[in-house]
User: What shape does this take?
Amino acid sequence: METKEERHVALKVLIVDDEPHIRLLLEQTLDELEDHDVELATASNGQEALEIVRDDPPDLMLLDVMMPFVNGFDVCRSVKGDPATAGIKVMMLTAKGQDLDRQAGLDVGADRYVTKPFDPDEVLELAAGLLGIELD
Assistant: This one.
């Protein structure tokens, strides 16, 4: 039987955006994290994201705001408001860049708020930092 030290527990990042090209861009941006045993998953809307969080919680969510069914603010509020999932780190990635929007994101519990268009290197660094990974 293997010990806890021998078992490797991968970290999981959930990318949530209703735009397929943005999801692909973020997967490519975060590809380097896979070298650090990080698994990438995607969801195309807030409702799907909440189902994934319930069934297989990620360590970090990259979350768009404007999405069908459930918007990113409501997803973040739900995740951060539930003691079982409150530890999930949330980085909001959105075109909503007004100070009021940024404050709304932080008010619902987002750990970081990044506006689109974003710098892929910055997103990678922020994601790695939120996961406690030191990039080479």
Notes: The longest strand covers residues 11-16. The first helix runs from residue 20 to 29. The radius of gyration is 15 Å.
